[in-house]
Amino acid sequence: MSLKLRSTTLAVAALLTGCTLGPDYVKPNLTTKPQFAGAAEVRQSAAKAVSAENANWWQGYADPLLSHFVALALQQNLDIAQAMARIEQARAGLSAANVALLPAGTIDGQAARAMQSNETSMGQMLAAQPGYSRYGSQYQLDVGVGWELDLFGSLRHGQAAALAAYEAAAASEAATRLAVSAQTADIYVNIRGLQARLALARRQQQTQSALVANLRLLAEHGLIATAELQQAEGLLAQANAVVPALSGGLVQAMHALDLMLGAQPGSSEQQLADQSALPRVPAFRDMGTPGDLLRRRPDLLVAERQLAAAHAQLGQAMAEYYPKFSLNGLLGSATALDAGELFSNNSSQASAVLGLRWRLFDFGRIEAQIAQVQGREAELLAAYRLASLRATADVEDALTELLQREQQVLVLQQGETALEHARSAAAAAYQQGVVSQIEVLQSDEKWLQLSDARLQAQIAAVRASIQVFKALGGGWNNSADAAAG
């Protein structure tokens, strides 16, 4: 039996039995780990704890200005505005799919006035008739109804695809909001970190300048080698070069924050003019499991809903094997010359039509379309599985970065404390005339360098904690998981 004949036989059998085409969609069951590797350690990293499912997770940093900027970004960010516009487009597509299942009605009417030429063959024939008039009128009013009978689920599959596309657009908007809130918080932390480092760099400038001045005085009197002075001058040049680099980075970070807020560059400069302490890393509680990411992370829901839409499109493509039936009806009235007779019994008209459309000799093209949609569904299934793996990796990477940075901060703090004691001892010895001011300045310089290293590690730890919230899908909790599955 040929492929076309076999397809025709299947279609006829399905038509006679009245079955609906296409298997129901089943959400893929992905294998996940029971827990995150670094969850227990990070959960005890600070006194204040905040849940990843907290809608306002950024409040865990206890920084009112950070919360202000994040809230403002969620209101004004233009990426979010685009995502919301895409939701409206998807909602319109869903409305169109819903309406396609319902009967459609139209009302058509017309009133015409015409004048017949007497010089044409028709006009000359009519002119010979008794009571002929060149002028004529015609009136018509009809109500039509059309309904496609969705016997094999083509329209219902289309509706399911449109619904999944709408849900994907809504989840995409949530993913954009999560990305915007995390990026805004990250930029703010970077700004505060750059401000703190800039203040420290200026202190290094002052310390190194004073050290060079003292060494230059000693070199002029031949008390130290010229190489020692030159080495100190080189360190001063290095300290001087750090300040403009940090200043330029600070300006760029402020401009990046304004961009997130959908504002002109420089709009937030006044609010950020006063230096503030770097936000502390909050602890994490109710972190959940890798399996929870499947409902918590909106980007995973986007991938799953796109897969559901492709499955529905597969059923829609398979429904093309079967005939499509439609009912069309017309009820109206028409009359010529006299509009007063438009609604009389003699002027009434009606019709009923049962339509049939069957791509009976086009099964090869249908099969090609089905194969194309099947390939698309297989691609999206692989993409969903890959997104799940990447989501778990994102969390593990962020937790690892946070743990390592916090350990680095602890080590550098210990060194900073030791150098602080050395500074105090050098200052006391200088007061007693035991050591020179040069040794005091050198101790201060070493402390400042280590303080800058500790500050960079602290900034990295706070930014890593923001990435943890983002990787966990912070603030997003899909309560409609059953509907999505």
Summarize the structure.
By secondary structure, this protein is α+β, with helices and mostly antiparallel strands. The chain has helices at residues 3-17, 39-43, 64-76, 78-99, 121-127, 154-220, 226-260, 293-296, 298-318, 363-431, 437-471, 481-484; strands at 49-51, 104-115, 135-149, 283-285, 324-336, 348-357. It has a single domain, classed as Outer membrane efflux proteins (OEP) (Up-down Bundle), CATH 1.20.1600.10.
Describe the structure.
There is one protein chain. This protein is an alpha+beta fold and 485 residues long. The chain has one domain (17-112, 138-484): Outer membrane efflux proteins (OEP) (Up-down Bundle), CATH 1.20.1600.10. The protein has 12 helices and 6 strands. It has a 4-stranded antiparallel β-sheet with strand order 2-3-5-6, with no helix packed on it. A two-stranded parallel ribbon has the order 1-4. It is elongated. The model is unreliable at 1-19 and 479-485 (pLDDT under 50).
Mean pLDDT over all positions: 82
- Count of domain modules: 1
Structural Rg: 38 Å
Continuous helix count: 12
The CATH architecture: Up-down Bundle
What does the largest sheet look like? 4 strands, antiparallel
Overall CATH class: Mainly Alpha
Strand content: 5-15%
Strand order of the largest sheet: 2-3-5-6
Order of helices and strands: HHEHHEHEHHEHHEEHHH
